[in-house]
Every structure is written in C-alpha cells, then in structure tokens.
UniProtKB/TrEMBL annotation:
It holds the Pfam family NAD_binding_2. InterPro entries: 6PGDH_NADP-bd, NAD(P)-bd_dom_sf. One of its GO terms (molecular function) is NADP binding. Signal peptide: none annotated. This is 6-phosphogluconate dehydrogenase NADP-binding domain-containing protein. It comes from Vitrella brassicaformis. Residues 13-121 form the 6-phosphogluconate dehydrogenase NADP-binding domain.
Length: 122
C-alpha cells in the first residue's frame, strides 16, 4: 500500500530532530494534528515547549529513530545532517527497515544520495 495513505495521527509515530524556529513550528503542527512525537535537539532546552505540548524528549537521534516510523530532520548544516543521520548514535543506527527519513535541511543533493546509499547497505 502507498505509505501516505496510512500515515494518520494515532497510527504513525513521528520523530523530529532539530528544534530551531522552523523545526519548532512544524513539530508543533504535527503534535496539534494528533501525531505521537519524539523529539531531539543538541540543546535539549529548545525542546521544552514541544514536551509541554506532549512530545517525548529523546537523548539521541538513534533513540528518536527507534521510537518512530517517520523521522524528520531540520538541522543547521550538511555536516550536521551527516552526524545526525549517519553518526555513531545517529538515525540509521536505530531506524527500522521500513522506516522513513525526511531531511529538510538546506543541503546538497549529493549528500542525500550518499546517505540513501548508507541506509540501503544497513
């Protein structure tokens, strides 16, 4: 079945990595829509408002992936994307085989291709 047809609040667990201005707003809208949310930021205090709205704070990108069906990332720079997704305690270390990662960081297409290849090898 087509994934988006089944990505409904209450049935799809969402993870969000990056709680800056854009991440906070997007994550807040998903929580308001009824999605179960796990969040992570290198600066945990940035997640406080999201936790107050019902999100669960994780202590690593890996923990976010372990408890999510879909993981969104929106971090500062391509190097951050590399670390958050493919680092030792990154998303790929905890992502389920059917898991989905959506990176919204302003970056290079070649980085997306590189990370997709790493994910396929796992």
């Amino acid at each position: 079945s087509f994934f988006l047809a089944s990505a409904a609040p209450g049935g799809t667990r969402v993870g969000f990595i990056g709680a800056g201005v854009m991440g906070q707003s997007m994550c807040s809208h998903l929580i308001k829509a009824g999605y179960s949310m796990t969040v992570y930021s290198r600066t945990p205090s940035k997640c406080a408002a999201l936790v107050e709205k019902g999100a669960v704070l994780a202590d690593s990108p890996r923990k976010v992936a372990e408890s999510s069906d879909v993981v969104f990332t929106i971090v500062g720079f391509p190097e951050d994307v590399q670390q958050v997704i493919a680092g030792t305690d990154g998303v790929l270390a905890g992502l389920k085989p059917e898991g989905i990662v959506v990176d919204m960081t302003t970056s290079k297409p070649s980085l997306a291709q590189e990370l997709a290849e790493k994910a396929a090898r796992q």
